[in-house]
């Protein structure tokens, strides 16, 4: 997904200055920006009695900022949709909103902005490819929005979101369908059997699981990887639908 030139990350890799360039906001509190770029795995373990390492609580990671950014993003996108489609009611606006704030959309925008290379993650998680996970990228994107909001308020957060989501909003001319529903309609229209979803594996600790779901239909297979079964199924359905449509083209 392309974004405006002003939002493209520089080639050099100074995470904080690059993140400032991405947001277009002059941070007064760089600690907020640093926190937004910190994955849970990069937070040092707590030391318990006897010098034992205890699981990290998440404090210092981007989880709290993600919580805030999620709400800010929803508000700004809802406001924008009401402005852009003044004659539509909730039934049409709802699916648009759901798509624009969905994990796949967030992850695609984060990827386009160069956000994966700016995230602080543990070396072991980096080797495992955690920066490529849609759930990690979506969370980081929301955290970045949360940092901008807490540092500067709603106006700079709105400017950042509208710039980063410009192409996605343009593509939302027709209310999107849920990927699983779209896949089901596609295969039934061609006489194929209903899609079958299977859990391939569940990885990671209980507090931060990663589900890998596979879906099979029309003789093809798609796979999704996310922090919940539902999100992984949606990603798998999207991947398979793209494969089926590409084969038919």
Query: So, the CATH homologous superfamily of the largest domain?
Result: Ribonuclease III domain
CATH class of the largest domain, anyone? Mainly Alpha
CATH topology group of the largest domain: Ribonuclease iii, N-terminal Endonuclease Domain, Chain A
What is the number of domains?
A: 2
Q: Mean of residue pLDDT?
A: 84
Strand order, biggest sheet? 3-4-5
* Weakly predicted, low-confidence segments: 1-12, 53-58
Radius of gyration: 19 Å
User: Helicity level, as a percent range?
Assistant: 40-55%
CATH level-two architecture of the largest domain: Orthogonal Bundle
Instruction: Count every helix, treating DSSP H or I runs of 4 or more residues as helices.
Output: 11
**Structural class determined from secondary elements:** mainly alpha
Inertia-based shape = globular
Number of strands: 5
Write the layout of secondary structure elements.
Elements: H1 15-23, H2 30-36, E1 46-47, E2 53-54, H3 63-84, H4 90-100, H5 103-113, H6 123-127, H7 134-152, H8 154-164, H9 166-170, H10 179-189, E3 196-203, E4 210-217, E5 220-226, H11 229-248
Antiparallel strand pairs: 1-2, 3-4, 4-5
Helix pairs in contact: 2-7, 3-4, 3-7, 3-8, 5-7, 7-8, 10-11
């Amino acid at each position: 997904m392309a974004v405006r030139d002003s939002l493209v990350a520089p080639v050099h890799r100074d995470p904080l200055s690059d993140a400032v360039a991405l947001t277009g906001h002059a941070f007064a509190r760089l600690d907020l920006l640093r926190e937004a770029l910190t994955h849970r795995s990069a937070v040092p373990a707590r030391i318990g009695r006897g010098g034992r390492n205890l699981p990290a609580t998440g404090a210092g990671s981007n989880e709290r900022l993600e919580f805030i950014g999620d709400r800010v993003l929803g508000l700004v996108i809802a406001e924008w949709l009401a402005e852009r489609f003044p004659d539509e009611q909730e039934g049409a606006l709802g699916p648009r909103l759901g798509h624009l704030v969905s994990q796949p959309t967030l992850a695609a925008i984060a990827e386009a902005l160069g956000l994966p290379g700016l995230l602080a993650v543990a070396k072991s998680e980096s080797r495992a490819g955690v920066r490529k996970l849609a759930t990690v990228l979506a969370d980081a994107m929301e955290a970045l929005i949360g940092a901008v909001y807490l540092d500067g308020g709603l106006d700079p957060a709105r400017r950042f979101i509208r710039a980063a989501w410009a192409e996605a909003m343009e593509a939302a001319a027709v209310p999107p369908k849920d990927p699983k529903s779209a896949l089901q309609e596609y295969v039934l229209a061609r006489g194929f059997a209903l899609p079958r979803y299977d859990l391939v594996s569940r990885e990671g600790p209980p507090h931060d699981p990663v589900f890998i779901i596979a879906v099979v239909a029309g003789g093809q297979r798609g796979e999704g990887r996310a922090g919940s079964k539902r999100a992984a199924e949606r990603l798998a359905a999207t991947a398979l639908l793209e494969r089926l449509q590409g084969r038919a083209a």
